[in-house]
Amino acid sequence: MLEAKKVLQEFGLTENEAQVYLILLRLGSATASEIVEKTSIHRINLYDILERLQEKGLVSFVILGKRKAYEAVEPKNILELEDERRKSILEILPQLEGERKLSKQKQEATIFKDKRGIKNIVDELTKVKEFDFFASGWGFAKAFGQEYSDIWHEKLKVNKVKVRCLLSKKFKETLKVPESLNYRWLPSEFVFPSTTLLFQDKIFIIMWGSEPIGILIRGKEVYDSYKQFFELLWKLAKK
């Protein structure tokens, strides 16, 4: 089961904001003093946290006599807030894309140190017309799971993405190559230390390990260089 506090932090709350929101859900209604007793948060900091939660629409307050009591909004309201945030992002998306084009020449490489970022790029490949890649010998299924790998290859097949893949003969006996790939074998001495994908003037290098790292390189000159190397090996490789 997902940990509520962690998910709330991914939603955009700080650790202390998530803690206060969850405490208020459990208590139903509480004064600042009561919240301080239940947490390790200093009273001065607590007021700032409560103010930010109110601005985000997650906490409200009521006056009971001389007491000011805080309450958490219904959890389902978080989804409504997320929908509103998504609508706002969609509205400014054309502007963001415009900014990205302006800075395209300046940005040459992006490093992804989490699986989610790497997955986003890998998923993008199921929507392109074609791409080529040097396979390392299959860190993909190990990192993301066989089920995700099977679904990814199925999407390539359904979307009719043309894929060429170079593999080391070292893995020929142990590797089951999906039907979605047009592949050729290089001599056993060719063992690539990483998976390198070529698409749309981009190179995406994935270094597999317990924590995979991805490097996305943009630039026609670099792409053309990798592409030329791929075409040379493709001619030398065996079906």
* Proportion of residues in helical segments: 40-55%
CATH topology of the largest domain: Endonuclease, Chain A
Give the terminus-to-terminus CA distance: 46 Å
Mean of pLDDT: 81
Global Rg:
25 Å
CATH class of the largest domain: Alpha Beta
**Overall tally of domains:** 2
Q: What percent strand?
A: 15-25%
Structural class: alpha+beta
* Record field, number of beta strands: 9
Characterize the biggest β-sheet. 7 strands, mixed
The CATH architecture of the largest domain comes to 2-Layer Sandwich
Sum up the overall morphology in one term. Answer: elongated
Order of helices and strands: HHHHEEHEHEHHEEEEEH
The fourth-level CATH homologous superfamily of the largest domain is Endonuclease Chain A
By oligomeric state, this entry counts as single chain
Low-confidence stretches: 103-107
Question: Can you tell me about this structure?
Answer:
This protein is of the alpha+beta class and 239 residues long. It has 2 domains: 4-75, Arc Repressor Mutant, subunit A, CATH 1.10.10.10; 108-236, 2-Layer Sandwich (Endonuclease, Chain A). 47% of the residues lie in helices and 21% in strands. The chain has 9 helices and 9 strands. It has helices at 4-11, 15-27, 32-38, 43-55, 77-102, 115-124, 139-144, 146-158, 220-236; strands at residues 59-64, 67-72, 109-112, 130-134, 162-168, 182-186, 195-199, 202-207, 213-218. The protein has a 7-stranded mixed β-sheet with strand order 3-9-8-7-4-5-6. Strands 1-2 form a two-stranded antiparallel sheet. Strand 1 and strand 2 (67-72) form a beta hairpin. Helix 1 crosses helix 2 (15-27) and helix 2 (15-27) packs across helix 4 (43-55). The longest helix has 26 residues, at 77-102. The radius of gyration is 25 Å and the shape is elongated. It starts with a helix and ends with a helix. Mean pLDDT is 81; it is low at 103-107.
